[in-house]
Amino acid sequence: MILFGESLNVISNVIGKEFKQADPAKRNPEPIQKEVLEQIEKGMDYIDINLGPAKKFGTELMPWVVQVVQEAAPGVPLLLDSSNIDAIEAGLKVAKPANKPHIVNSIMARTARYEAMVPMTKKYDADFVALMWGPEGLPRDENERAALAVELLYFANEAGIPNEKIWVDGIVTPVNIQQPQAISLMLFQDMLQDIAPGAMSTCGLSNISNGPPNHLRPILNQTFMVMLQKYGMASVISDPLDTQLTAIAKGKRQDIVDLIYAIQDGNQPDMASLTKEMQDYAKTVNVILGNTLYSDSWLEL
Questions:
Q1: Tens of pLDDT along 127-157?
Q2: What's the Rg (C-alpha) of the chain?
Q3: Would you give the DSSP letter of residue 217?
Q4: Residue 193's CATH number
Q5: Residues 51-77 as b or e (16 or more Cβ within 10 Å = b)
Q6: Is 260 a member of any domain?
């Protein structure tokens, strides 16, 4: 599993003030560079630079951050994220080649967005994330996701961009609010190689646990990552501080993967035979699958 480190963003307590500082002379690159090196040490494959809306100073700030990151970690690919298209292009202009193409995150399945952004990614030979957020917002099910994917990828293909440079994001939603959407996303993920052969995939993994208490977030994130992996998910935007998630993603906890896959295949384990750790994963799979109604106390039941 490819991991995009998510901590480098405008809301980070460590570096947020540097992102918001308008005067380049007053910006301190050290907190950002320290964070980048720590993310790489913790196993992140890409560095996600997320400036959010970046309405003010975005076109000056994005290239500065890109240069600061690349000074600390030459050759590491970047995931550039902002709703300000000009800020993303300013970052692409100064980005030096890395060991893999840089990625623009993300291009929504809305005509105005993809017509403006797809040519930009081709100009700079960047990959891009195709976000399945359509004219009506979040797709209702896997079939709507598939229709949006076909529309956006067809446009990209016509522009000369192959599927292999596209990372499809079917959109993760909070399990405590829209429990059936998790299943819809897995079904869409299972369809992806049929409708877009060669395309990669990614997601904002932590959205699955956005809302539940903080102590439940890691196991939700870890479990759902494995469940998506079973259907071909290639990468996730990941919390670098979650060392268990990284260990699972890098193949160091095959016992957890085997258990989750077995439950997805309909083979429920004998709970009494499992350790407390493995019981928690089993219970979490069943919550995400909708076999158990979500509540904040599902691990205690």
A1: 999 999 999 999 999 999 999 999 999 999 9
A2: 19
A3: H
A4: 3.20.20.20
A5: bbebeebbbebbbbbbebbbebbeebb
A6: no
